[in-house]
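This section describes the prediction task in plain terms. A model, or a person checking by hand, is given the sequence of a single protein chain and must write out its three-dimensional structure as a string of tokens. No templates, partner chains or ligands are provided. The sample shown here is typical of the held-out split.
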Amino acid sequence: MNTLRKTFKFIREVYPRNVAAFLALLSLSVLEAGYAAEEPRNQAKAGFACIDVTPKIKVPMAGFAVRENIPYQEINDRLYLKVAALEDGKGVKLVIVALDTLKWHRSMHEEAVNWFRKTCKLPARSLILNATHTHGAPKLYGTTPEILECRKQVMDAFKQGVSVALNKLEPVKITFGIHSADFGVSRRYPFPKGIQWRPWRQGIINRDLPIIAFHSRKSGKLRGLIYSYGCHPTSRGGKQWVKISADYPGEIAAGLKDIYGKEVQAIFLQGTGGDVKPEFARETSSGPRFRAASSSEMASLFRKRIASGIAVFADSDAMKPLNLDLAEAVKIVELPWDYDLSRTYPAEDFENRVRDSKLPEKDRKRAAEILAAHYKNGKIITSFKMKMQAVRFSPELLLFTMTGEIVSEYGLKIKALFPGKEVIVLGYSSYHTPLGSGGYIPTAAILKEGGYESWNSGSMIYKIIRKDSFRAPFSPDVEPRILNAARMLGNQVLKKD
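The expected answer:
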């Protein structure tokens, strides 16, 4: 507007009255047309979708081995697949998909990426798949008819959701900020005899709860929220809970729906919560222990307090404008297992197990699955290929995604690599670790300290052949490998035009 005022003043001073009036109108039309043409080119766009993926048939539950083959008994709350499609002013797109599930099966990841490339004509690096990691979801890994049907339901929802979100792209104003939450607690209690699975308030926790808000430029209304936190959705307990539930991510989403209405999509992304649980605890004679939360506790904490806190923060001055300027990169990071190299693990060991008619059928089937997952061309696979993605939302905001159950400290360590930047770090993305691996990605310190996230991080082959209670853990150099890859990818997207 200052440019327009200066232009009109100059015209009035230089030209006669009639000519000045004509030129003023002409310049106004030209300038307005210029602004109108320029503004859409520089505007970010966003589109959202939400598809119900609650299982339509009885299927076994995922999340706890003690109930792995037990079909769910009832539906406590619905499961969803949610999509945010983003486009910056240069036409670069990013699609983020959050699924209420324990993990994305590798075959689902491959199908999603292939469809995305072929149908959406977008590169694989522009697609993020994140699992909320709820332990109240159906099992999507396996080959039973029920599991395959449930998996197909999810993949159909994925294709529908991505298509809808991309077709609903509209100009938006984006803001972001880093909120925090305190409901997660470390489950690595340092007893004198070693790490135990108990609440440990003094443990290392990444308490960041980043929020990105999208408002329609046309109406000013809130269209969607993306928020993240790193904590296991295991509030409901284990063996005794055989109900479909999105756990705390679903409760928070329900609370935000109460506040904003159903037109606003609240999308939760699971962070680095590998060693973190919701702090529902009970005191015992031997110290604190975790317990299952009641429905009233879930509603009070997550649906009311946490959801209200997110809404208040999202509407506060702590949220800063985000000028979307997307850049994306991806890398496969080799994470070696620390095998006992003094002996070999020939494929014949498992081939013999498959053929041994004296073994129970389940053991023979397990051997066949391990053989397929951990051997290639008859040779043992000695490392896990982690997929890491980096996204630049703007020069001030970076996002990293990683495969596996990433422990909380990685969120802090990767953030420390980029001083002066805001950094969001997600685990549980793309696909999970292979069959027979515990799935946890520990730091070097956790590998040394021991505990569940240490010994449950490696290859099941070690456990089967040596007949002891431990997997082969990852090598201690997984931490520098991960941090070096994050540094490289982060610098790569920051330098992109």
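For orientation: Confidence is low (pLDDT under 50) at residues 1-11, 22-40, 466-470.
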